[in-house]
Amino acid sequence: MKKFFTTLSNIWKIEDLRLRITNTILFLLIYRVGSFIVLPGVNAAALHSAKAKEGLVGLLNMFAGGSFSRSSIFALGVMPYISASIVLQLLGIAVPYFIKLQKEGESGRNKLNQWTRYLTIVITAAQAVGYLRSQITADTMLLPNPYFTILNVFVLTAGTLFVMWLGEKITDKGIGNGISLIIMTGIIAELPNAFVLEFQSRTGGPGGLITFIVELVALLGVIMFTILIVQGTRKIAVQYAKRIVGNKQYGGVRQYIPLKVNAAGVMPIIFAQALMFIPATVAQFFPNAASNGILMALSNSNSWGHNAVFAILIILFTYFYTAITVNPNQMADDMKKNGGFIPGVKPGNSTADYIDAVISKITLPGSIFLAIIAILPAFASMVGVSSLFARFFGGTSLIILVGVVLDTLQQIESHLLMRHYDGLMKTGRIKGRSSVPTAAGATPPVI
Asked: Where are the transmembrane segments (predicted)?
């Protein structure tokens, strides 16, 4: 306990770190306050009985921190921004103009960010129309329908853009990745209610308190397994040649390149989840198509079809995002320039091919385990866990929580170590997603 208070004291002594943490808390507080501001022209008193929190609608509500069910100005959250980033990154593979922008360094990234913002406006406006049609009923509207729809499409679009701006400000002026922290805040906001409801249902039903304790133990095991996946690395030995500069000798030692088993972090889960919202969106715009069997299966988060497609998308996105964030050719070139080589492998193209082969091998089991964790809530629901609590029983929410918490703690530890303070742990170091620039990419992703 003394070590804990000493660490908090050290964090408070570093002015830059103290300011960043304070800014992060204030920005997240603004987001939480805004999530309780109801859309203009909506009868707030009639909302609770009109909202359903099951399936994908429940997941959207969780990511938005309850804003979706409250018809808040932040009801759509940052999901349109994530969808826009997916589209831009896919265009960066197939369209020459966007491929060129990706190679232009800082100026290219600024242009891509601008394109992402423009596309976010379009996607948000489309999703806002679908949201108002499906979630706002006639008895909850206090304004005439055409005026109500036009007004709130603008309000929802402005709300998403404001949340996006908050996320960017957290990244620049705060600690951690802003968009990820906003999503994590929304998830944590739903946790206490889910915990209390599950406790009440279990203690009042068969099995009693023992069943609830078993669930908590199983949840702890899933959390430990998730941490292992997030922090797992494959070390590649690198030998550096000896160099004599003046009277000093440099190199001649063996070091390691730690390649992460899950180099893509939480991005495959978020990307796949964003795409899985498409069937529900289509059903909102075309009510007649909602009776289609395939569309119904994909819209039901507990169906076998939905979880099979979800798992496949996660595996594909894991390979995709690892390919665009980890560059074996650049790693081989940097190694060659610094006089390093992998024992038994020729420098240059052979080294790049070797690193690429290792990444491909470790990405496969990593992506499969990631997919298993992501679909665990569906299996938890099958054994009787309530749908609200099952979302924390593995799945997207748990992976995001673990990844974002580790990443934020790692950044705090980096600030401490830079100022020659002890880290957050007495022994060892926190290995977050950004702790290895060669594996996670020097530039943080769009979320």
From this structure: 21-39, 73-95, 115-134, 146-166, 178-197, 209-230, 264-286, 306-326, 362-382, 388-409
Cβ-Cβ contacts under 8 Å for 74 (sequence gap 6 or more): 31, 34, 35, 37, 64, 65, 67, 159, 160, 162, 163
What parts of the chain have a pLDDT lower than 70? 1-4, 46-59, 205-207, 242-253, 280-293, 295-297, 299-302, 420-447
| Distance set, CA 386 to CA 58, 226, 306, 379 (Å) | 12, 21, 19, 11
**Beta strands 254-260; 340-341: pairing state:** unpaired
How many angstroms separate the Cα of 369 from the Cα of each of 75, 249, 373?
31, 44, 6
Query: 3-state SS of 139-164?
Result: HHECCCHHHHHHHHHHHHHHHHHHHH
Write down the residue that tokens 């390093």 correspond to: 340
The CATH number of 2-440 is 1.10.3370.10
How many C-beta atoms lie closer than 10 Å to residue 266's C-beta? 25
Q: Greatest CA separation found in the chain?
A: 84
Residue 143 corresponds to which amino acid? L
Q: What is the pLDDT of residue 49?
A: 47
Q: Choose among 277, 335, 325, 273: nearest CA to 440.
A: 325
Q: What CA dihedral angle connects 356, 359, 361 and 364, to 10 degrees?
A: -130
User: H or E element: which one contains 174?
Assistant: none
At 359-382, the pLDDT tens digits run 988 998 888 988 888 888 888 887
Spans of all domains in the chain: 2-440
- Return the pLDDT at 121: 93
Distance of CA 117 to the CA centre of its chain: 19
Helix (H) and strand (E) counts for the chain?
Answer: 18, 5
Report the predicted TM-score, pTM, of the whole model to 2 decimal places.
0.74
Separation between Cα atoms, residue 283 and residue 286, nearest integer Å: 5
Strands (E), 213-365: 233-240, 243-245, 248-250, 254-260, 340-341
Nearest alpha-carbon partner for 356 in 234, 241, 188:
234
